[in-house]
Specification:
The complex is a heterodimer of chains A (about 50) and B (about 280). Chain A contains two helices and no strands. With about 50 residues, chain A is an all-alpha fold. Chain A has one domain. The longest helix of chain A is centred in the N-terminal third of the chain and has 25 residues. In chain B, helix 3 packs antiparallel against helix 4 and helix 3 packs parallel to helix 8. The two termini of chain B are about 25 Å apart. Chain B is built from 17 helices and four strands. The interface between A and B is large, with 40 and 65 residues.
C-alpha cells in the first residue's frame, strides 16, 4: 500500500507526460520543434 | 558525492553537446535526435547540441500562428519533472555547471543568497510567465512572433550558442550588433555574480527551474529526512547552498538535489531515495 501511495504522484506525472507527448506528436508539434532546432536560432545567438 | 556530481555534470554536458564537427565549422547538428529535448537549459543553436532545449521548444510552439496548447513541451516537462524534479538543475544542466565552476573560483567571500532573496526568488516565475509564455505569444518582430526569453535573457544561448558560432562563422560575425552586446552583458553579469553568489541564474531567473521546482514535492528522486534520527545539529542547513532547513529540503521548489546536505549529515538522516518505501515515517 505504502509503495503505491508513494508512486502515485510521480507515476501519474509520467503518464500525463507520455500522453501529452503523444498528443503533441499527433498534432505535428515534434516537427515544429525539430524545424526550429535545426536552423540557427538568430534570436538565441543575439542577432535576430 | 561532490566528485560524482561534478563527473555526471561534465559527462552529461559533453554527451549532449558532442557534435564536434559543429564546433569546428560553425554549423549546427541537423539530425533526427533534435526531435527530442534534453532535460536542462541547453541552447539548440549550440554547435555541439544533439537535442533540443525544452524552453526553446515551448517557445517555438507558442510562436506558431494562432494558439495551440504546447502539448509536446508540456509532456517533456511532466516526464523529466515527475521523474527527476530539480535534480535536473543540480546534476544535468550545463549552465548550472558553468555557475558551479564560477562559484569555485577562490576569490571574494561567498554568499548563498542575494539581499531581498524572499522577493527576488519569484523572478524565475516572472521570467516564465512574462518572457517565455506571454512574450512568445504576443511579442512580434516584423510579422513573426519572437521567442522572447531566448532573445532578451537566456545566457545559456549566448554562452553555448552565440560565442562558439560567432567565433567559427564569419558570416554571422558581421551581423552581431546591439542585441548580442546586451546578451553578452547579461551572461557576463551572471557569471561574475555567480563567483560570489551560489547559482544566481538558477535561484532568481531560470524559467526551467521554476517549472521543475513545482514537481519537487512529488518527483521520483527525493531527499528524505528522518526526523527521529535528527539531532538538530544544523550541519545540513550550513552545507545547503540555497540555505534550506531539513524540514524544507524534500519539498521545497528551491532544492536542486545537489546532495550537499546528505554528505554533511553526521547521523545519516538525510538520504537520496527513489521508489524505496523504507524510512518514510515523518
Amino acid at each position: 500500500m505504502g509503495f503505491w501511495k508513494k508512486c502515485k504522484g510521480w507515476s501519474l506525472g509520467v503518464l500525463v507526460g507520455a500522453a501529452f507527448l503523444g498528443l503533441g506528436a499527433v498534432q505535428g508539434q515534434l516537427e515544429v520543434i525539430w524545424r526550429k532546432a535545426v536552423m540557427i536560432c538568430l534570436e538565441c545567438v543575439g542577432i535576430g | 558525492m561532490k566528485r560524482l556530481r561534478l563527473t555526471v555534470q561534465l559527462l552529461f554536458t559533453i554527451i549532449t553537446n558532442g557534435y564536434v564537427y559543429g564546433f569546428a565549422n560553425g554549423k549546427i547538428y541537423r539530425g533526427s535526435l533534435k526531435y527530442a529535448c534534453v532535460p536542462g537549459l541547453n541552447c539548440y543553436s549550440c554547435p555541439g547540441a544533439v537535442a533540443s532545449c525544452p524552453i526553446g521548444a515551448l517557445q517555438a510552439l507558442l510562436n506558431q500562428r494562432g494558439f495551440h496548447i504546447p502539448f509536446a513541451a508540456l509532456g517533456v516537462f511532466f516526464l523529466f519533472g515527475s521523474l527527476l524534479g530539480r535534480f535536473v538543475c543540480g546534476w544535468l544542466c550545463p549552465f548550472g555547471l558553468v555557475q558551479d565552476l564560477s562559484h569555485k573560483i577562490p576569490i571574494l567571500k561567498k554568499k548563498k543568497r542575494l539581499p531581498y532573496h524572499h522577493i527576488l526568488k519569484y523572478g524565475k516565475y516572472v521570467a516564465l510567465i512574462l518572457l517565455v509564455c506571454v512574450g512568445s505569444m504576443f511579442l512580434f518582430g516584423g510579422l513573426a512572433k519572437v521567442p522572447a526569453f531566448c532573445k532578451y535573457l537566456c545566457p545559456s544561448g549566448t554562452l553555448f550558442g552565440a560565442i562558439p558560432l560567432l567565433s567559427a562563422n564569419e558570416a554571422l560575425q558581421d551581423q552581431a550588433g546591439g542585441l548580442f552586446l546586451w546578451k553578452f552583458g547579461i551572461l557576463l553579469g551572471i557569471v561574475l555574480l555567480s563567483i560570489k553568489i551560489y547559482r544566481p541564474f538558477c535561484q532568481y531567473l531560470c524559467p526551467l527551474g521554476a517549472i521543475y521546482g513545482w514537481f519537487n514535492r512529488f518527483s521520483l528522486v527525493q531527499i528524505q529526512w528522518e526526523k527521529e534520527l535528527c539531532v538538530s545539529c544544523m550541519a545540513c542547513e550550513k552545507a545547503c547552498p540555497v540555505d534550506l532547513s531539513p524540514q524544507e529540503i524534500s519539498r521545497s521548489p528551491e532544492c536542486i538535489r545537489c546532495g550537499k546536505c546528505v554528505d554533511a549529515c553526521p547521523r545519516k538522516c538525510l538520504r537520496f531515495c527513489g521508489i524505496s518505501t523504507k524510512h518514510t515515517k515523518n
